[in-house]
Amino acid sequence: MSDLEQILENNNVRPTAMRLLVLQYLLSKKVTVSLIDIEANFHNSDRTTLYRTLKTFVENGVAHQIDDGTGSTKYAICEENCNCEVDTDLHLHFHCANCNETVCLTEHKIPHINLPEGFKAENVNLVVKGICDKCNGR
After folding, report:
1. 50 φ, ψ to 5°?
2. 132 a known binding residue?
3. Residue 135 known to bind ligand
């Protein structure tokens, strides 16, 4: 069994050919990607199949989705042992206003936020916007 197949199996996702290709693509990226980015890479693939693959990855903890304020949902591979829980696994995202890339800053965790009684967080998304290290000349 390949490493890619093992990642999917560990997350209870059946390793189909398309899922393996999309996983390999996501793993090769250092930045988040949108469905449009993935479509551009898989010219002959059906948009619905790609979307369902991403949805399956998110639902099973293979990837997470990010709303970076650009109007297009982005996707990135989850860290090993991530379960995308609001209280334990959330990290910062950085969106560069110059190159328009969004990156996960997984080493920078979002602190727990105490909500008023009766409120229940289902998703937390913190995006810092500015100029990335590449565009800043560092």
Report:
1. -65, -45
2. yes
3. yes
Q: In the 8-state DSSP scheme, what is residue 4?
A: H
| Residue position matching structure tokens 């619905």 | 48
- Domain 3-137 in this protein, CATH class: mainly alpha
CA 9 vs CA 2, 57, 62: distances in Å? 10, 12, 10
- Is 99 annotated as ligand-binding? yes
**Rounded to 5, what percent of the chain is helix, strand, coil?**
30, 20, 50
Per-residue pLDDT tens digits for 6-58: 999 999 999 999 999 999 999 999 999 999 999 999 988 999 999 999 999 99
Confirm whether residue 96 is marked as ligand binding.
Answer: yes
